[in-house]
Amino acid sequence: MVRRKVQSRISLFIDSCIGNRIVCWLLRSEGRLSAVHIASSTGNQLQQTGVRTAKFELVIGEGDHDSVAQCALAGDSPGTETVLLEEPLLWEVPARTLNLSVSQILIIGFEAVVSLTSESFPEARHRCSINRSRGSHRNLSITRQKISRAIDLRNRAVIRVQSEFRFTLEAADLGGEIVCSGEVVSNPSVTEKFPLLRISEPCQTTADLGERRHWQVGEAWWIVVTSKNCSIWNVGSFSSTHALLVNEAMSQNRWKILCSINQSAFAYPDLEVRSASAPAVFGAAHKASLNVLVEHLCSNTLKVQARVKYRHYTLPVTNVTCQIVGSSEDLTMQQTSRDTWSALTTWSDLGSQPNLLVRCMALQLYFGELVFKTTAEASVTAERCFCANKKKLIHYAMTAAAAQLFIIVCVAVITWKLASSRIRRPTARDQTARTGRFAGQPAVPLQPLAAKKDAAAANTAATCDSEPYDVPTSDRGTANDSAWVYERASGGSACSSSQAAPPLPPSRYGDEDGGYINWKKLRQS
């Protein structure tokens, strides 16, 4: 380790563990200058630490700056030493001057740059601050620093330090001063100042895109960029005009306009105009198509239907108007759905004209501004339309008749099914019922009640057929089916009434015992 003092006589202190065989010298361009050995550490220190410290002295001049001091293990003869260490001898050079530079344009609210450069040995430490006119203090921070070796004008090795301070100017900084200093070890610091006498107000820049609220692809528009209140130029305002060609991509994607503003070599941030705040852009994909259909119904009635179709439903059709070519009045169109308009009209001369032409127009508006106007036409022939209409009527009538006939047939079939379900064919059990036995008992003849009540009718001969009818046993011997009354009789012949034969009795029902009652229909003999 070398400890040096910056003076004409310097001392070198060498720590080693190899005894007294250390030699030192100063290596010059013209030869070596041997160092004088002054003393070494005592034996007690050597015994405690195992390291011996040797002191050497060199007498050097100003021309020896940056010369190399070497220490080596002594050899048997000069030139055979083994160099163990070497170190250049450098004079301490104070930073006598500072190079201070500040941005030419200083604008409130924007960034300013202070650059500071010094040359010294060792390197200087840089500091900068703003001393305001009202006594406040504002320290600045180093944003970038570069350190390199250099040779000064007196051929001395020095360290060059280049520091950069970036900060945003404030209105309170006006009238103050920038103070920067460079300090080298024990030497007094060097100070430089820069007065902030003029700080400009920033320009107020706007872009005028015109008054229209929409653009169409293929149009060219002028963009006027205006800057006002620029105190550096000392003018009221400054404007420039730029041409913009609207393209298809602007109608399908988000976009923005960037305007760069440069004021006396000072570049402002780009002015942005985004699509969200700019006029809407419409292209071919936003234009709706129009289809017109005309029908001649009857009695000179004309049905007009206009339909619109969209590729992108972002600009709806707001109005559809139609007119018969040759007429001065528009048809009264009614919007029946989102995409359909229709109208019915009577044309007095419809029968006398072989052909009619209907022209329709659809309008697409954006905040009251016309964007697209689409027209379409359709023609109709009166005779052909009438024949076609007559054929349609005949077709509709035949279809309706066939449907009505189908319904009648279905009703008849259903009625027949229901009627036939009420008459049940006799079963084997019904055949047993023909014997007149009820639940294992002998047959019981039936006698009409009228025979008991009317003596004249008692002499009337009556015969009874043997056709069985099943009736509910819950009646317990009587059955009332509107015209005839039957009852069970213990004996005697069956009698008949003068009334017409009753309708068929209800279908068979079972009694509590599971048997059946055989009722006989009485008739006039």
List the helices and strands and how they pair.
Layout: E1 9-16, E2 22-28, E3 31-34, E4 36-40, H1 43-49, E5 52-59, E6 67-73, E7 82-89, E8 99-102, E9 111-120, E10 125-131, E11 137-139, E12 142-151, E13 157-168, E14 177-183, E15 190-195, E16 204-208, E17 214-216, E18 220-230, E19 235-245, H2 248-252, E20 256-259, E21 262-263, E22 266-267, E23 271-274, E24 280-282, E25 289-296, E26 301-309, E27 317-324, E28 334-335, E29 340-346, E30 355-366, E31 369-381, H3 382-422, H4 428-433, H5 450-453, H6 455-458, E32 462-470, E33 479-480, E34 485-486, E35 518-524
Organism: Macrostomum lignano
Biased composition (Low complexity): 491-501
Protein name: Ig-like domain-containing protein
Structure description:
It contains six helices and 35 strands. The chain has a four-stranded antiparallel beta sheet, with no helix packed on it. The protein has a four-stranded antiparallel beta sheet with strand order 8-9-13-12, with no helix packed on it. Strands 11-10-14-15 form a four-stranded antiparallel beta sheet, with no helix packed on it. Strand 8 and strand 9 form a beta hairpin. The longest helix has 41 residues. The protein is elongated, with a radius of gyration of 63 Å. The chain starts with 8 loop residues before the first strand and ends with a strand. The N terminus and C terminus are likely disordered.
